[in-house]
TrEMBL record:
Keywords, alphabetical: Disulfide bond, Endoplasmic reticulum, Glycoprotein, Isomerase, Redox-active center, Repeat, Signal
Known EC number: 5.3.4.1
Signal peptide feature range: 1-26
Top-level class of the enzyme under EC nomenclature: isomerase
Organism listed in the record: Cocos nucifera
Locations listed in the record: Endoplasmic reticulum lumen
Family that this chain belongs to: Belongs to the protein disulfide isomerase family.
Every Thioredoxin domain range: 27-148, 344-488
Main location, first listed in the record: endoplasmic reticulum
InterPro entries xref list: PDI_thioredoxin-like_dom (IPR005788), Prot_disulphide_isomerase (IPR005792), Thioredoxin-like_sf (IPR036249), Thioredoxin_CS (IPR017937), Thioredoxin_domain (IPR013766)
Protein name, entry field: Protein disulfide-isomerase
Paired cysteines (S-S): 66-69, 411-414
Amino acid sequence: MAISRVSICAAFLAFLVFSSFSPVRSEEAGAEVVEESAVLTLDASNFSETVAKYAFIVVEFYAPWCGHCKRLAPEYEKAASILSKHDPPIVLAKVDANDEKNKEFASKYEVSGYPTLKILRNQGNNIQEYKGPREAEGIVEYLKKQVGPASAEIKSSEDAGILIEDKKIVIVGVFPDYSQEEFKNFMTVAEKLRSDYDFGHTLHAKLLPRGDLTVGGPIVRLFKPFDELFVDSQDFHVDALENFIEVASVPKVVTFDKDPSNHPFLIKFFNNPNTKAMFFLNFSGESFDSFKSKYYEVAELYRGKSISFLIGDLDASQTAFQFFGLKEEQAPLIIIQDNDGQKYLKPNVEPDQIATWVKDYLDGSLSPFKKSEPIPEVNDQPVKVVVADSLHDVVSKSGKNVLLEFYAPWCGHCKKLAPILEEVAVSFQSDDDVVIAKMDATANDVPKEFNVQGYPTMYFSSASGKLVQYDGGRTKEDIIDFIQKNRDATTQKDTNVQSEPLKDEL
């Protein structure tokens, strides 16, 4: 299932999130030990009733075939076991969101990718995204903070030292007293954004590091491990305070390298609505400092103007290159992608060309970079090959029912799905009204009506042109059943589609 949030690089962001841990099993004497789960299992029969019992509960929405869900499962189970002993106990639950009877909850909680974790507060009336680690120890520490106060009071230098660390973002409000409207607004924002940031408040600015000790407040100081290290705001309107935090908490240039401390900034970069400018080069190259200096100058020039900047090390950016279909010999290169999915590419750029090229893009004087593989001369396999230049002819103009897979050649899930799609296509070979097709989304531009943010993503276009995203199971039988139910009745014919025993899901 593709992730529907506007995020141009969900595929390799998922890689970043999950690459830091691997699944584990409990084994004894060579046999797997089955233990009672500490994770509550929810479904349509008990979901609402269970959530209503708790002031704080975490729910994982998963799909049985999802590889990332399988990798998370042992870590989530271990964290649930530890947190069940917390005072008070912290409850972790899960629900199979791919099960038809549970899909109403996936819709209600805006679940559009697997796994999705939600923090439900106040009997489910307050819903927040879980944005913490995905290994057991990190889950435990993150959730312990989430059940405490939204903002910690700083009464001593020791308190400040514990809260304000050098490698994380912390927002601290300084107030003359805690009775004013500014403090109430601050606490409102802290409660709303507590899953993203650490908050603190104090009556004494002298307890804080990095700055003017004479500050009396009310003022908000955001501490950060980059750029100017801290920044202040005195606008306590809730919307303004939220915006200040969101803007100030992202580096003017996000770094894409192997340092895991940069991953939260990468996620914010790719999930924000701005146009994305991405510069990839060799960080160990002799010209790196010159390139970096010029790029940072451009980022500073256009800061706050709806374009975000990233600099990526070639050594760490292989997943990004695979996603965009780029080649290492094109580096140093800049690629810009706008909100319509159009890409602009400048390969083998020189330091003095960076500013001019970005300006030309913003002035609208550049043409987008178009990608399409050649239309195959021979296309007689059961699963038909579609390229960007032939996509609309196959999907929109053919008058047929078309199941189209968008895949990446390097994607493990796509490789597992390939033989299943082949079986589906063979089953429909005698039916002229059904086409099973595939397109390499890394080698071809994907039109914006197809929301392809992860691989594989499948769409079904009926003969009359109704377009829906496929989000069912990944067995031959599941896919055939979906096609038969969604194809246009006016074109449906008797087919020789054969049913076979169910196979293991991906």
